[in-house]
Amino acid sequence: MNVLWIYAHPEARSLNGALRDEGLRTLTGLGHRHRQSDLYAMGWNAVVDHADFDQDPDTRLVVGAESKRAYESGGLSADIRREHEKIDWADTIVFQFPLWWFGMPAILKGWFDRVFVKGFAYGVREPNGRTARYGAGTLAGKRAMIIVTAGGGESAFSPRGINGDLDELLFPIQHGTFWYAGLTVLPPLAVFGADRLSEADYEAAAEALRERLQTLDDTPAIAYRKQNTGDYDDDHVLLPDRAAGQRGLSVHRVPQA
Protein backbone atom coordinates (compact mmCIF):
# COMPACT_ATOMS: atom_id res chain seq x y z
CA MET A 1 0.00 0.00 0.00
CA ASN A 2 1.13 3.56 -0.72
CA VAL A 3 0.56 5.87 2.26
CA LEU A 4 0.93 9.65 2.19
CA TRP A 5 1.41 11.18 5.66
CA ILE A 6 0.45 14.86 5.95
CA TYR A 7 2.00 16.17 9.16
CA ALA A 8 1.12 19.57 10.64
CA HIS A 9 3.03 20.32 13.83
CA PRO A 10 5.89 22.80 14.24
CA GLU A 11 7.99 20.73 16.66
CA ALA A 12 9.60 17.43 15.67
CA ARG A 13 10.38 16.68 19.34
CA SER A 14 6.71 16.89 20.36
CA LEU A 15 4.24 14.13 21.14
CA ASN A 16 3.01 14.50 17.58
CA GLY A 17 6.54 14.14 16.28
CA ALA A 18 7.08 10.95 18.27
CA LEU A 19 3.79 9.48 17.04
CA ARG A 20 4.61 10.43 13.45
CA ASP A 21 7.97 8.69 13.70
CA GLU A 22 6.35 5.62 15.26
CA GLY A 23 3.75 5.57 12.52
CA LEU A 24 6.27 5.73 9.69
CA ARG A 25 8.39 3.00 11.30
CA THR A 26 5.30 0.84 11.60
CA LEU A 27 4.38 1.34 7.96
CA THR A 28 7.89 0.35 6.90
CA GLY A 29 7.76 -2.74 9.10
CA LEU A 30 4.46 -3.74 7.54
CA GLY A 31 5.95 -3.49 4.05
CA HIS A 32 3.99 -0.39 3.03
CA ARG A 33 5.55 2.40 1.01
CA HIS A 34 5.19 5.89 2.46
CA ARG A 35 5.86 9.48 1.58
CA GLN A 36 5.46 12.54 3.76
CA SER A 37 4.47 16.19 3.60
CA ASP A 38 5.85 17.77 6.79
CA LEU A 39 4.21 21.15 6.28
CA TYR A 40 6.20 23.22 8.78
CA ALA A 41 9.51 21.66 7.73
CA MET A 42 8.60 22.35 4.10
CA GLY A 43 7.80 26.00 4.89
CA TRP A 44 4.44 25.42 3.25
CA ASN A 45 2.78 28.60 2.01
CA ALA A 46 -0.75 28.51 3.42
CA VAL A 47 -2.12 31.51 1.50
CA VAL A 48 -3.92 31.34 -1.85
CA ASP A 49 -2.83 34.07 -4.23
CA HIS A 50 -2.33 34.88 -7.92
CA ALA A 51 1.01 33.06 -8.02
CA ASP A 52 -0.75 29.73 -7.44
CA PHE A 53 -2.30 30.04 -10.88
CA ASP A 54 0.44 31.92 -12.77
CA GLN A 55 -1.89 34.90 -12.98
CA ASP A 56 -1.09 38.60 -13.30
CA PRO A 57 -1.48 40.04 -9.78
CA ASP A 58 -3.26 43.10 -11.18
CA THR A 59 -6.13 41.03 -12.57
CA ARG A 60 -9.22 40.09 -10.58
CA LEU A 61 -8.76 36.70 -8.92
CA VAL A 62 -11.74 34.33 -9.15
CA VAL A 63 -10.25 31.43 -7.25
CA GLY A 64 -12.50 28.59 -8.43
CA ALA A 65 -12.33 29.48 -12.11
CA GLU A 66 -8.62 30.27 -12.08
CA SER A 67 -7.69 27.15 -10.16
CA LYS A 68 -9.56 24.96 -12.63
CA ARG A 69 -7.97 26.74 -15.60
CA ALA A 70 -4.50 26.41 -14.12
CA TYR A 71 -5.04 22.77 -13.14
CA GLU A 72 -6.23 21.80 -16.62
CA SER A 73 -3.48 23.76 -18.38
CA GLY A 74 -0.65 22.62 -16.11
CA GLY A 75 -0.20 26.17 -14.84
CA LEU A 76 -0.46 25.54 -11.10
CA SER A 77 2.56 26.47 -9.00
CA ALA A 78 5.19 23.76 -8.60
CA ASP A 79 4.53 23.16 -4.90
CA ILE A 80 0.85 22.41 -5.56
CA ARG A 81 1.71 20.11 -8.46
CA ARG A 82 4.10 18.16 -6.20
CA GLU A 83 1.31 17.59 -3.67
CA HIS A 84 -1.02 16.42 -6.45
CA GLU A 85 1.59 13.92 -7.56
CA LYS A 86 1.85 12.55 -4.02
CA ILE A 87 -1.94 12.26 -3.72
CA ASP A 88 -2.18 10.52 -7.09
CA TRP A 89 0.47 8.05 -5.88
CA ALA A 90 -1.23 7.33 -2.56
CA ASP A 91 -3.82 4.71 -1.73
CA THR A 92 -4.32 6.10 1.79
CA ILE A 93 -3.69 9.58 3.18
CA VAL A 94 -3.05 10.10 6.90
CA PHE A 95 -3.58 13.62 8.22
CA GLN A 96 -1.92 14.25 11.58
CA PHE A 97 -2.39 17.45 13.57
CA PRO A 98 -3.07 18.88 17.03
CA LEU A 99 -6.57 20.21 17.67
CA TRP A 100 -6.06 23.97 17.95
CA TRP A 101 -9.11 26.08 18.77
CA PHE A 102 -11.36 23.19 17.78
CA GLY A 103 -9.93 22.86 14.32
CA MET A 104 -6.81 22.10 12.32
CA PRO A 105 -3.72 24.37 12.37
CA ALA A 106 -3.84 27.18 9.83
CA ILE A 107 -0.99 25.70 7.82
CA LEU A 108 -3.02 22.53 7.17
CA LYS A 109 -6.15 24.51 6.30
CA GLY A 110 -3.97 26.41 3.84
CA TRP A 111 -2.77 23.12 2.40
CA PHE A 112 -6.36 22.16 1.61
CA ASP A 113 -7.15 25.64 0.28
CA ARG A 114 -4.25 25.50 -2.16
CA VAL A 115 -4.09 21.78 -3.05
CA PHE A 116 -7.76 20.79 -3.30
CA VAL A 117 -8.34 22.95 -6.36
CA LYS A 118 -11.30 22.87 -8.70
CA GLY A 119 -10.96 20.10 -11.26
CA PHE A 120 -8.70 18.08 -8.98
CA ALA A 121 -10.73 17.66 -5.80
CA TYR A 122 -14.08 19.19 -6.70
CA GLY A 123 -16.04 20.68 -9.55
CA VAL A 124 -16.16 17.49 -11.62
CA ARG A 125 -19.20 15.74 -13.03
CA GLU A 126 -20.46 12.20 -13.36
CA PRO A 127 -21.33 10.85 -16.84
CA ASN A 128 -25.01 11.70 -16.18
CA GLY A 129 -24.10 15.35 -15.63
CA ARG A 130 -24.60 15.39 -11.86
CA THR A 131 -21.89 16.95 -9.75
CA ALA A 132 -19.59 14.27 -8.36
CA ARG A 133 -19.22 14.94 -4.63
CA TYR A 134 -19.99 13.41 -1.25
CA GLY A 135 -18.69 9.94 -1.96
CA ALA A 136 -17.92 10.45 -5.64
CA GLY A 137 -15.28 12.37 -7.55
CA THR A 138 -11.68 12.17 -8.66
CA LEU A 139 -10.39 11.04 -5.23
CA ALA A 140 -12.88 8.20 -4.86
CA GLY A 141 -11.19 4.90 -4.09
CA LYS A 142 -8.56 6.45 -1.82
CA ARG A 143 -8.81 6.30 1.97
CA ALA A 144 -8.20 9.08 4.48
CA MET A 145 -7.68 9.00 8.24
CA ILE A 146 -7.11 11.67 10.87
CA ILE A 147 -4.69 11.32 13.78
CA VAL A 148 -5.44 14.14 16.22
CA THR A 149 -4.11 15.14 19.61
CA ALA A 150 -6.18 17.18 22.06
CA GLY A 151 -5.30 18.75 25.38
CA GLY A 152 -8.62 17.94 27.04
CA GLY A 153 -9.62 14.60 28.47
CA GLU A 154 -11.68 12.11 26.49
CA SER A 155 -14.84 12.73 28.53
CA ALA A 156 -14.76 16.44 27.66
CA PHE A 157 -15.05 15.46 23.96
CA SER A 158 -17.96 13.06 24.50
CA PRO A 159 -21.53 13.76 23.28
CA ARG A 160 -22.32 15.54 26.58
CA GLY A 161 -18.82 16.88 27.18
CA ILE A 162 -18.26 20.63 27.37
CA ASN A 163 -15.99 20.60 24.30
CA GLY A 164 -18.55 18.84 22.15
CA ASP A 165 -18.50 15.42 20.53
CA LEU A 166 -15.18 14.92 18.75
CA ASP A 167 -16.93 13.26 15.80
CA GLU A 168 -19.00 16.41 15.32
CA LEU A 169 -15.98 18.69 15.72
CA LEU A 170 -14.24 16.74 12.95
CA PHE A 171 -17.34 16.64 10.71
CA PRO A 172 -16.28 19.66 8.59
CA ILE A 173 -13.00 17.91 7.78
CA GLN A 174 -14.12 14.31 7.49
CA HIS A 175 -17.46 14.89 5.76
CA GLY A 176 -17.15 18.40 4.32
CA THR A 177 -13.65 17.94 2.90
CA PHE A 178 -12.67 14.26 2.66
CA TRP A 179 -16.06 12.79 1.78
CA TYR A 180 -17.00 15.79 -0.38
CA ALA A 181 -13.93 15.11 -2.51
CA GLY A 182 -14.71 11.38 -2.73
CA LEU A 183 -12.25 10.05 -0.15
CA THR A 184 -13.36 7.07 1.90
CA VAL A 185 -13.14 8.17 5.53
CA LEU A 186 -11.71 5.92 8.22
CA PRO A 187 -12.55 6.55 11.90
CA PRO A 188 -10.09 9.01 13.48
CA LEU A 189 -7.49 8.09 16.05
CA ALA A 190 -7.51 10.59 18.91
CA VAL A 191 -4.98 11.02 21.72
CA PHE A 192 -6.49 12.97 24.63
CA GLY A 193 -4.71 14.78 27.45
CA ALA A 194 -1.84 15.36 25.05
CA ASP A 195 0.00 17.89 27.23
CA ARG A 196 0.23 15.59 30.26
CA LEU A 197 0.72 12.04 29.00
CA SER A 198 2.63 9.70 31.24
CA GLU A 199 5.10 7.24 29.74
CA ALA A 200 2.49 4.51 30.11
CA ASP A 201 -0.12 6.72 28.39
CA TYR A 202 2.28 7.33 25.51
CA GLU A 203 2.94 3.62 25.11
CA ALA A 204 -0.82 3.00 24.99
CA ALA A 205 -1.23 5.70 22.35
CA ALA A 206 1.66 4.31 20.29
CA GLU A 207 0.19 0.82 20.48
CA ALA A 208 -3.23 2.12 19.39
CA LEU A 209 -1.53 3.79 16.42
CA ARG A 210 0.32 0.61 15.48
CA GLU A 211 -2.91 -1.37 15.63
CA ARG A 212 -4.72 1.13 13.40
CA LEU A 213 -1.95 1.10 10.82
CA GLN A 214 -1.95 -2.69 10.75
CA THR A 215 -5.60 -2.60 9.62
CA LEU A 216 -5.51 0.38 7.26
CA ASP A 217 -6.76 -1.64 4.31
CA ASP A 218 -9.66 -3.37 6.07
CA THR A 219 -10.84 -1.02 8.83
CA PRO A 220 -14.56 -0.33 8.21
CA ALA A 221 -15.08 3.20 6.94
CA ILE A 222 -17.47 5.77 8.36
CA ALA A 223 -20.75 5.03 6.57
CA TYR A 224 -21.57 8.48 5.25
CA ARG A 225 -24.47 8.74 2.83
CA LYS A 226 -23.63 9.41 -0.81
CA GLN A 227 -25.16 12.43 -2.49
CA ASN A 228 -26.30 10.85 -5.73
CA THR A 229 -27.67 7.46 -4.72
CA GLY A 230 -31.20 8.35 -3.64
CA ASP A 231 -30.94 9.59 -0.05
CA TYR A 232 -31.26 13.32 -0.86
CA ASP A 233 -33.75 15.36 -2.85
CA ASP A 234 -32.83 17.77 -5.64
CA ASP A 235 -32.12 20.48 -3.06
CA HIS A 236 -29.68 18.13 -1.29
CA VAL A 237 -31.94 17.70 1.73
CA LEU A 238 -32.21 14.25 3.29
CA LEU A 239 -35.48 12.57 2.32
CA PRO A 240 -38.14 12.44 5.08
CA ASP A 241 -38.07 8.65 5.38
CA ARG A 242 -34.30 8.62 6.02
CA ALA A 243 -33.50 9.00 9.75
CA ALA A 244 -37.13 10.01 10.17
CA GLY A 245 -37.72 12.58 12.89
CA GLN A 246 -34.00 13.02 13.58
CA ARG A 247 -31.83 16.11 13.22
CA GLY A 248 -28.16 16.88 13.47
CA LEU A 249 -25.00 15.66 11.79
CA SER A 250 -25.58 11.98 12.55
CA VAL A 251 -28.41 11.79 10.01
CA HIS A 252 -25.80 11.85 7.26
CA ARG A 253 -24.55 8.41 8.29
CA VAL A 254 -26.18 5.20 7.10
CA PRO A 255 -27.55 3.34 10.16
CA GLN A 256 -25.50 0.27 10.97
CA ALA A 257 -27.04 -3.02 12.10
UniProtKB/TrEMBL annotation:
Keywords: Oxidoreductase. GO terms for molecular function: NAD(P)H dehydrogenase (quinone) activity. Residues 1-213 form the Flavodoxin-like fold domain. One of its GO terms (cellular component) is cytosol. InterPro entries: Flavodoxin_fold (IPR003680), Flavoprotein-like_sf (IPR029039), NAD(P)H_dehydrogenase_qn (IPR051545). The keyword Oxidoreductase applies. It is an enzyme of class 1 (oxidoreductase). Its EC number is 1.6.5.2. Belongs to the NAD(P)H dehydrogenase (quinone) family. This is NADPH-quinone reductase (Modulator of drug activity B). It comes from Actinoalloteichus hymeniacidonis. The lineage of its organism: Bacteria, Bacillati, Actinomycetota, Actinomycetes, Pseudonocardiales.
